[in-house]
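Hi V.,

Quick status before I head out on leave. The structure for the redesign project is tokenized and pasted below; the design run finished overnight.
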């Protein structure tokens, strides 16, 4: 029986994803945060002011949960809501000074964890991984 490389690639991808998710969860929790909180703060830190819809699409958290996460982070003083002047239905979310300061402290540490994971992987190999995973993701979307 010949080796099924598609199946093997699938299993390796799932195992790597599980291990990476556990590592990232541990790293984020070491900063006293939940993954959902961190991903919202990180999106705002790197992309600036966003609507709730934009954040939801960016961080892959469902709409019902995102409001709860934003409410919690707002109560902690890490982000704030600003109504859109042109459309009352739209509310912008942005980091407060306290939120920016927190992300400036913890994001470089988080990034170093990720850099450590990819130690020994060349930039060319990283580009190949990115390309392959994008194609697999797009194909999976088509098959839904």
């Amino acid at each position: 029986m010949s080796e099924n490389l598609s199946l093997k690639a699938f299993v390796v991808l799932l195992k790597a994803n599980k291990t990476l998710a556990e590592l990232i969860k541990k790293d984020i929790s070491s900063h006293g945060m939940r993954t959902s909180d961190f991903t919202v703060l990180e999106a705002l830190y790197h992309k600036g002011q966003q609507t709730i819809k934009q954040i939801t699409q960016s961080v892959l958290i469902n709409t019902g949960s995102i409001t709860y996460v934003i409410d919690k982070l707002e109560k902690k003083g890490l982000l704030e809501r600003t109504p859109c002047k042109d459309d009352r239905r739209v509310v912008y979310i942005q980091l407060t000074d306290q939120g920016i300061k927190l992300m400036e402290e913890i994001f470089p540490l988080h990034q170093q964890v990720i850099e450590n994971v990819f130690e020994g992987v060349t930039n060319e190999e990283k580009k190949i991984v990115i390309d392959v995973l994008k194609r697999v993701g797009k194909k999976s979307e088509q098959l839904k």
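Above is the designed sequence. The chain has a mean pLDDT of 93.

G. will cover questions while I'm gone.

Best,
W.
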